[in-house]
Structure formats: structure tokens, C-alpha cells
Amino acid sequence: MHLQSPSRVVLLAILSLASIAVADDATKTTISSTPAITPCVATSTNGAFFDLRPDAAVVVQKDEKPPKGVPTEDYVAKGWDYGSNFTLNICNPVVKRVDDVVGVDKALWKNISAYYETKGKVHSLGLQSGTLVPRGRKLVLQYTGGSPCGASDKSRDKRAGVHEGARYKYNDFDDDGEDEGDYYAPRRTSKDDEDDKGGKKDKDRQKDEPVRRKSATISFLCDHDPDTPTAFSFVGTDPDECAYFFEVRSQHACAGAEPHKPGSVGPGSVFAIIFFITVLVYVVGGVFYQRTVAHARGWRQLPNYSLWSGIWSFVKDLFVILTSSCARIIPRRRGYHTLSGSPNGRRESRDDENRLIDQLDEEWDD
Ligand SMILES: *[C@@H]1O[C@H](CO)[C@@H](O)[C@H](O)[C@H]1NC(C)=O
Ligand SMILES: *[C@@H]1O[C@H](CO)[C@@H](O)[C@H](O)[C@H]1NC(C)=O
């Protein structure tokens, strides 16, 4: 009987090792066959991992408590000489509701991720996107599909309206496939501005020709200082006011280590496997040595049997000592305490008795 026990242990060890390996393989294959794309997360070709999700401002309902450490307000980039400030969010749509956006379908207003306001009108710089693109040490995020291009204010202005409604009208006149860029600006007249609100024409136009729309390109820079808040700066726009460029400094734009994906073998399981194999080799090798060289039998075949049994009895003793001392400390067990004759309580009352007797003795003496 005793002879078999160690080998049974070894067998069990091998079996469980095998099952761990099989389980690992199973999860790995299922995960890798369906790679999940997480928005706002990117892995560059050199293995650097970026996760900007902590920088994305989230909408908090009125009665909800804002989550800790998560931004709940949009980012503002000062426009400086541009004349308007920009409101943006990272990966998510802007938290602040926007209404009456120039040239954008009402259904998409809730998807706008960047905009600026001028003369009370909101110009979108693009719709929400979570596609982070790592380019070398830079991380780039782009929002596209904003308001139609064209300067929006003052003097350059008359183009301002180069708003599709108007363009569509011209197309009716000379529909000869001329390059649109050539003609729309000069022929624009101020009375056309009235057409800007023509939603119906907008719709007609959308069927007709592709419209150039504003976009925002955001470049993220790593800032290791955790005390610096994530901040946007406006870099510039092209003369058509079509493409807008921003720079963001954030600690989350620093390359980090990719978190352990479920299913792959992480450092913890690698350690566990190595540990397991080491133990296995130790046990198998030890048994082999004890049997063949030392001719041991029974439990004594286990390597360092006396050492391990010593440790085991030590642990057992320790356990007994700890439990008994715990039993003494824990007040809940007062029942036992008094039963077993609490040394403390008894001694105190005995001290009192002694003091009384002493007092009495003194009084007698007087
Ligand atoms: C932009 O924001 C600054 C403060 O950050 C403010 O002083 C300025 O008036 C704003 N400009 C516009 C056009 O709203
Ligand atoms: C707009 O946002 C909604 C979710 O809020 C999403 O389901 C939809 O696909 C978005 N549309 C576009 C064009 O991004």
C-alpha cells in the first residue's frame, strides 16, 4: 500500500499539469480566432501599448456621482488668433450637448467629438472615432465628417457660406463637371448667405456630390508628469479651414506594457508552470534516487522525507499554538474563559480579597 502512494502523487501531478496546459491552449485558440478591437487603445509595431480611455470624458447623469479620476468635462483648446475656442473630447462624443450644427445631420449631433462656435453657430470638426493610430512615437486620432469646409467668419467670409446649398445652386447652372474649387468662391454673393439654413437643399446636395468636410487630427504626446492635467492645444488649420490640427499632452500617451490578455499565458501562469515542473522534477527525481540508491521504501522514498515531515509537524504545532492563543484572546469565548477559570479575573478578585483582609488586619492591630 505504502509503496504506491508516492507514485500516485507523481501521477496526479503529471495529470494536473497536463490539464493546465490543455486548458491554456483551449482559451488561447478561442481568443485569437476572434480578436476584439478595443476603441481608444493601440499597439504600435514595436510593441508599445497605448490606452487613452482614462482621458475620455464621460457623461454623468445629474443624480449620479461622478466616477473618481475620470474626466467629466470636455477639453477646451484656446483658439488664439483663430478667433474661436475649440471644444473636444477624446474618443467619445463631446459631453456638452450641441444643437444647431452647421451642415450636419441632426441624427449625428450626438456623435460630434469636436466643434467650435462662432456667432452662435456650432461648426463640427468631426464625428466620434476611437481609431488610434500609432506612428512612431506619436499617436494620432482623427475625427472626420464635420461641417462642410469653408471659412466661417468675417471677411473670408463670403465664402463662409460656401455652404452646400449655394454650391448646389451653381451646379444647376453650369453642370459641366468643372472642378468645383475654381468657381465657387468668386461667384458667392452675400445674398446667398440666406440659403445657409436651407436644410432641404442640404439633403439634395448630399445625394449629388461629395462635400469636403472639416476634420480634426489630434496628435498625442507623452507627458510623464502625473500632475499635469491632459490638455489640448490648437496647432492650426489649413487655408480652406478644412483640416484642424491639435496636440494633446497626456500621461496616457506614454507607451506602456500591454495588459495581460485573457487566454494568453501571462507572467503569473508562466511562473506557476515553472514552479510546477520544478516540484515535479524534484519529486520524481527524489523518489528515483531514494529507491535505487538509498533503497528506501514507503513514504521514505519521498526526497528529504525527514525534512518535510519535520516541517509538517512544526506547522501542525504552530497551528495548535496559534489556535489555542487565539481562543484565549478572543473575547467572544468568555464562556470557556470562566469555565476554565480565567486566571486574570480570578487573580483580580483574589487580590481584592487579600487587600480586604490586610485592611481588616490593620484595623485589628489598631
Ligand atoms: C476662449 O477662452 C478664453 C479663456 O480660456 C476666453 O478668455 C476667451 O474669451 C475665449 N474666446 C472666445 C472666442 O470664446
Ligand atoms: C453615433 O453614435 C451612436 C451611439 O451613440 C452609434 O451607434 C452610431 O454608430 C454613431 N454613428 C456614427 C456615424 O458614428
From TrEMBL:
Keywords of this protein's UniProt record, alphabetized? Answer: Disulfide bond, Glycoprotein, Membrane, Receptor, Signal, Transmembrane, Transmembrane helix, Transport
Superkingdom to which the source organism belongs: Eukaryota
> Where in this chain does the record put each MRH domain?
38-256
Gene3D superfamilies linked? Mannose-6-phosphate receptor binding domain (2.70.130.10)
Basic and acidic residues bias locations:
197-212, 345-358
Q: Where is the composition biased (Acidic residues)?
A: 173-182
Which chain regions cross the lipid bilayer? 270-289
- GO cellular-component terms in the record? endosome membrane; Golgi membrane; late endosome
What PROSITE patterns does the database record attribute to this sequence?
MRH
Mainly localized where?
A: membrane
Query: Which Pfam families does the UniProt entry name for this protein?
Result: Man-6-P_recep
Q: Where is this region: Disordered?
A: 169-212, 340-366
Q: Where in the cell is it found?
A: Endomembrane system
Please give the InterPro entries that the UniProt record associates with this protein.
Man-6-P_rcpt (IPR028927), Man6P_isomerase_rcpt-bd_dom_sf (IPR009011), MRH_dom (IPR044865)
| Keyword Zinc among record annotations | no
Q: Which residues form the signal peptide?
A: 1-23
Per the record, the GO terms for biological process are: vacuolar transport
- The name of this protein is Mannose 6-phosphate receptor domain-containing protein
Q: Which organism is it from?
A: Parathielavia appendiculata
Q: Recall the taxonomic lineage recorded for the source organism.
A: Eukaryota, Fungi, Dikarya, Ascomycota, Pezizomycotina
